[in-house]
């Protein structure tokens, strides 16, 4: 099977000290933990797509602040082996109180509603990399930890 197209994804890193916001989702029979965000739609810029995704997923408006990382290696999609992923990560800041329901446990909200997205804080210092599902997200956690170490030696 050959790669037929690119899938461009954009994600927002909402930080609170050593914590980063993640969401637990289930799609196509797979459960995964990732950062908030999603697919770039035709005609959108990256920042506008990220604002739209956060609004759709959390009903909360965010400001996109600094660029953190763009995939610089080949990553095949976990959902469609014909797609190559390109993921772009930005830090985001809330423009209003967070409106989505928060949880303290992974996949907690899905007991009652499998279609729900469960939002929670993940402490970077508590094996956060192990909690995330996708390789690019794991790399971004390592980058955040390195940045944290440089900032707070």
Short note summarizing the structure:
The protein is an alpha+beta fold and about 150 residues long. The protein has helices at about 45-60, 130, 135-150; strands spanning about 5-15, 20-25, 30-35, 35-40, 60-70, 85-95, 120-125. The protein is built from 3 helices and 7 strands; from the N terminus they run ββββαβββαα.
Summarize the structure in words:
- With 153 residues, the protein is an alpha+beta fold.
- It has a single domain, classed as Nucleoside Triphosphate Pyrophosphohydrolase.
- Helix content is 22%, strand content 37%.
- The chain has helices spanning 46-58, 128-131, 135-151, and strands at residues 5-16, 19-27, 30-34, 36-39, 62-70, 83-94, 118-123.
- Strands 1, 2, 3, 4, 5, 6 and 7 form a seven-stranded mixed sheet that branches.
- What fold name stands as the CATH topology? Nucleoside Triphosphate Pyrophosphohydrolase
Tally of DSSP β-strands: 7
CATH homologous superfamily designation: Nucleoside Triphosphate Pyrophosphohydrolase
Helix content: 10-25%
- Note the total helix count: 3
Query: Please, what is the average pLDDT?
Result: 90
In percent, how much strand structure appears in the residues?
Answer: 35-45%
- What's the overall geometry? globular
The CATH level-2 architecture is identified as: Alpha-Beta Complex
Largest sheet: 7 strands, mixed
What is the straight-line distance between the termini? Answer: 47 Å
* Rg, Cα atoms, Å: 15 Å
Provide the domain count: 1
Helix-strand category: alpha+beta
Low-confidence stretches: none
- The H/E string reads EEEEHEEEHH
Which class in CATH terms? Alpha Beta
């Amino acid at each position: 099977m050959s790669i037929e197209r690119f899938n461009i994804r954009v994600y927002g890193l909402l930080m609170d000290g050593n914590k980063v916001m993640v969401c637990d989702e289930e799609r196509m029979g797979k459960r995964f933990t990732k950062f908030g965000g999603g697919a770039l739609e035709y005609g959108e810029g990256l920042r506008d797509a990220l604002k739209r995704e956060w609004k759709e997923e959390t009903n909360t408006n965010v400001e996109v602040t600094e660029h953190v990382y763009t995939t610089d290696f080949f990553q095949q999609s976990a959902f469609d082996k014909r797609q190559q992923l390109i993921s772009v990560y930005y830090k985001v800041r809330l423009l209003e109180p967070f409106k989505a329901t928060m949880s303290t446990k992974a996949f907690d909200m899905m007991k009652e509603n499998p279609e729900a997205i469960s939002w929670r804080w993940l402490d970077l210092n508590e094996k956060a990399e192990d909690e995330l599902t996708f390789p690019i997200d794991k790399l971004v956690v390592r980058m955040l930890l390195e940045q944290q170490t440089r900032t707070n030696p």
